[in-house]
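Title: Comparing notes on inverse folding

I've been comparing how different people in this forum approach sequence design from structure. To keep things fair, I'm posting one structure and asking everyone to reply with a full sequence. Here's the target:
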């Protein structure tokens, strides 16, 4: 079984843009950004436990990477960029570190490269297991009301928070819980060294109000792009600026390969 997704046609010879959403999102999440890049063929995937892939599960990052690779092959995608937000960004970084054939580069928005400290891993694992228990028990609107009170979402307005709670509550709680545990930051390897050795372009986006991921970006050997008037969910809060950054990144790189 492969990941479900929505695809859009582009011009011949242009690399694919493969979009990976964040936790509790789905294939629609990147549409406001991706549809402005109409020269490029685009694939918006649903990650396991999400959207039209709600019945799919994986056992960890290696299994997730194998599933992503099979899915790309099933779409006959031979030359591509991965564009991922948060969880999708972590999956994109892990994939890039396996040095897959055909990958042209990655664009990561607010993705964590991995925890270095054993105590931090233990604490994160306990936290993610508590959240997974809540997602399985529901109701999801109550769970997401608390989820979006976490410090990383502090820049959201009340209206933005209510909108996300309504949207995310359409998910399947058991599917979300399984994916949360399988791809917890606690079980993700620290990718910093492998990312430093990447042979493909690595671009990192973060919102100007996202202090946590601004600090993480400074640790990485990546070209950094600050998105104005945005916090952690920059592509949702300022899709125009994120699209402009992607246009800039891709114009420079695609010009050399067409």
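Reply #1:
Here's my take.
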């Amino acid at each position: 079984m492969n990941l479900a997704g929505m695809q859009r046609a582009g011009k011949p010879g242009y690399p694919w843009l493969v979009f990976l959403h964040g936790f509790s999102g789905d294939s629609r999440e990147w549409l406001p950004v991706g549809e402005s890049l109409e020269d490029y063929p685009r694939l918006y995937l649903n990650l396991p436990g999400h959207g039209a892939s709600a019945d799919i599960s994986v056992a960890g990052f290696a299994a997730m990477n194998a599933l992503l690779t099979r899915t790309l092959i099933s779409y006959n995608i031979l030359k591509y960029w991965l564009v991922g937000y948060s969880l999708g960004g972590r999956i994109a970084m892990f994939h890039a570190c396996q040095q897959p054939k055909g990958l042209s580069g990655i664009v990561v928005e607010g993705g964590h490269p991995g925890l270095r400290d054993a105590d931090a891993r233990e604490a994160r694992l306990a936290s993610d297991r508590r959240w997974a228990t809540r997602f399985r028990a529901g109701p999801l609107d109550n769970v997401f009301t608390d989820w979006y009170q976490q410090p990383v979402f502090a820049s959201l307005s009340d209206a933005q928070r209510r909108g996300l709670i309504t949207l995310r509550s359409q998910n399947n709680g058991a599917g979300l819980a399984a994916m949360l545990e399988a791809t917890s930051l606690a079980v993700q390897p620290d990718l910093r060294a492998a990312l430093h050795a990447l042979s493909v372009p690595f671009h990192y986006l973060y919102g100007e109000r996202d202090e946590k991921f601004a600090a993480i970006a400074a640790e990485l050997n990546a070209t950094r792009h600050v998105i104005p008037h945005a916090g952690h969910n920059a592509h949702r809060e300022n899709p125009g600026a994120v699209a402009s950054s992607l246009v800039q990144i891709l114009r420079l790189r695609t010009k050399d390969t067409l």
